[in-house]
Amino acid sequence: MLNPFDAPFRARLAALLPEGTLREAAPRHLAEPRGRWQGRPGPLAAPRTTEDVATILGACNAARVGVVPWGGGTGLVSGQVMPDGPLPLILSLERMTALRGLWPGENVIAVEAGMTLAAVQDTARQAGRLFPLSLASEGTATIGGNLATNAGGTQVLRYGTARELCLGIEAVFADGRVMRGLKRLRKDNTGYDLRDLILGSEGTLAVITAASLRLYAPPAQRLVALMAVPSPAAAQGLLALCEDRAGGLVSGFELISRMGFDFLAETGHDIRPPFDPLPDWMVLMELGLPPLMDGPATMAGIYDEAARAGLALDGVIAQSEAQADQLWAMREAIPEGNRRIGSISSHDISLPLGAIPDFIAAAGERLRAMADIRINCFGHLGDGNLHFNLFPARGHGRGDYAPLAAALSDAVHEMVAAYDGSISAEHGIGRLKTADLARYGDPARLAMMRAVKAALDPAGILNPGAVLPL
Amino acid sequence: MLNPFDAPFRARLAALLPEGTLREAAPRHLAEPRGRWQGRPGPLAAPRTTEDVATILGACNAARVGVVPWGGGTGLVSGQVMPDGPLPLILSLERMTALRGLWPGENVIAVEAGMTLAAVQDTARQAGRLFPLSLASEGTATIGGNLATNAGGTQVLRYGTARELCLGIEAVFADGRVMRGLKRLRKDNTGYDLRDLILGSEGTLAVITAASLRLYAPPAQRLVALMAVPSPAAAQGLLALCEDRAGGLVSGFELISRMGFDFLAETGHDIRPPFDPLPDWMVLMELGLPPLMDGPATMAGIYDEAARAGLALDGVIAQSEAQADQLWAMREAIPEGNRRIGSISSHDISLPLGAIPDFIAAAGERLRAMADIRINCFGHLGDGNLHFNLFPARGHGRGDYAPLAAALSDAVHEMVAAYDGSISAEHGIGRLKTADLARYGDPARLAMMRAVKAALDPAGILNPGAVLPL
Question: Where is each FAD-binding PCMH-type domain found (chains A, B) (predicted)?
């Protein structure tokens, strides 16, 4: 059993730390973006060094006081907000933002966990390198949080998730021991892969304090196009065509449903998709090509062949960087339209690629038979990752669906399970989906997850209630 | 403490398994390629199904009998041979060779652990797909062993190690519980990454019985060249040039030292490198390009620019698939020359890319000051992975160096540690390097590795003495 963070413990801990490290949590530390979970006012530690993180965890472990690691607060599954149980200490990495090292010739950067993703990207860019992890909240989200949740985003198809971009981590275990693993190595087969075990564990196995990351040579040419497609199956055919024509150089392949643009229009957002009438399905694609390749001819060739094969109905190829950015801005605006309409439930799912067209059709049919809803299905088609979100019919609000929301959500998860998919492709489990994980997860895997948690954090102080229920 | 596999346990286990599952180990199950470790005659189980694997592990766990998983027997660190301690059961996956599924359109294949790597490659090729893991022993090595050791090879630069090619695993834990994780998903953030924890754990945390793997579209054009370079630093400059010119499409970049070809000539191997006189350093490079790229012009442009910049002294670009194969055959023959000369010690190391030229110079100087030796340094330069092997001077045998061998080996490892490198880049720890891991590994990481081992295999039956000492 955990103990609450109380005044005597506060005094003991404060004596071990530099002045100003212990504070009160601000409102931003207690909220999460969808406003469904709320933390309680209480203590926050903002250490400046790994040694201070070690001191904090060691003391909390000895006193059995819970610790909630906090990055940028942008997580969508309430991994960063603990609404009940014994009052925890929030551990914010916001003052650990140093660049530990930059080796452009090696394509490696080492940064502290509190640096924002955008700052990592900028630092790499200034050295002529690309750090490809890219997602909507990158200005606020920290790299430590990205790694702790194994974040995805729009460039996974080519460059992988946060896990695949990480070469090494420095991390502090629950008992305060520090693993110094900021390796700059591409290959290292010396024992168990604790790095990948900690990445994606959402702060429940260790606290990441710094990481070494892979950089890339930026592609010499970026080609971006928005194409109208007759169906999700055609979109997949188009992706196969792109991969054949452009080798491993497809860096983005996003499915867009008409509903996304309808929502933006309905809520007064000024967006002008280039098709009239709007097709039901569109694809935003990006190729990152080397200098000696004829980029425009490659993209035009893909469009011509897709049109001939019936995989594309219409298309716009960006003729400048500004046009490319405009096409991406349309894609990036979709979550804002969703927020303005207000979802009944939101699902970050992944599916075997071959199952996606069937899933979209069958799930839509089943859910619409349950209630008069609208579905906005969009996302990272190349990764099999759909954001499958349910919305009220026009003229209704989400409140009208309150009695049905749980049943609708369950229906989505049941269908995902039936198609061998995942109920959390990139957002993680947090506290929002622990019951779903317990229900749909493989029993042997869950048992071993609990064994690993007990082995690495025997007192259970690290992010209590996240990933695994208390 | 473990118990030996004895007659009463044999009788109990045999009663639980289909006839013919329990056998005697053959000589090939008791040897390892370098002939330095030797197993003892004893029992072997060759199950046909995952359920039989579960039965075997459950029974061995209850009786505290050690189990040594066995794939193709090609491992170089004696992970597959247990020379002492209570007699274990060897668990060979050689009868589990089924194709579980093939989805060419999804770029996914699912196979049982006993299928050879070559058979996985062939099955993919027949479906028009590429499984890029490639290494010298691929005709014998099994995919289960490749995954259990996180094998590397010659295509890691572009496609990653075995870990990065694996989407999911079916595995049996020590207590016989089966994790059914043959996912075909690109993204899945539902809890701890037990897959990557088990991959590379060399059979000490679970037994992999099947895996789902990533396939790729084969590149439309393969361009292969052998270039003479003035130094390892120039070879790295050449790699950077290739990456700029060919985006992420460099699939192989191998450093070759003149010593490798000298050894082949000295031992009567018929090999004709295309340079006379032979340069001290060469690079074998491969590009895998999409159809619309002008491959020959790209490779010729790389060579011209490299020559102008002083990064290449001479070069041969393969003009046919046959010539490309010949160039690769020269690279692949190097280990045979090494075997014929007989190494004093062999090191599979990785280093930060920027440290490699310094390391090669400094380590060579230090070692040659200790003894009159020859060094063959070659390998996967793009991954920072060198095979750094020490050989007798001409006219001497390895026996002449016996009194010095340990000191030479220690000197290599000390220098690797000083340069923040790894003492095992791709071969693993096995039983050969447990003392080195204990000496050079991060203490917190080692402590947590032991905690993980105790959590997942409390009786310690899985591959006793491998990775972590008994």
Answer: 37-218
